[in-house]
Task: structure prediction
Amino acid sequence: MALPAVNLKAILLVHWLLTSWGCILLPGAYAWANFSILALGVWAVAQRDSIDAISMFLGGLMATILLDMIIIGVFYPRTGLSDTGRFSAGMAILSLILKPVSCYFVYHMYRERGGFFGPSQEHSAYQTIDSPEVPTDPFAGPEGRGQAPSTY
Result:
């Protein structure tokens, strides 16, 4: 099954609208958490090739899933909720429901940019101090480097 083409700008627009409407009822912590993560999303749009920008946005989206559950659970009023409050809470809950789907799409964008979660398979020329291999002496003659001496 092919993944539908979803633009990062569309994800940002949907979450911006839902967050703006959710801020009518919920306190400043909800706004700070979500709008700061949306700012990371703007950074990911601005720098299309940056793995750091998209990975920070993905990590922030995952973190706000937990934060939104806590904030909505703590600050949702039990009684006396107006129509505006119900609308605001509904938009915050809809944003929370859509965030795992958004994470899925953003993860695929992360992979397209060259990101990889897990142990790295790259081997670099950098040699650590703890390496068991003994480095060769750069000032040794050809005999010291395992080469036959040259005769002129």
Residues 83-112 form the longest helix (30 residues). Residues 72 and 135 are 58 Å apart (CA to CA). The mean pLDDT is 83.
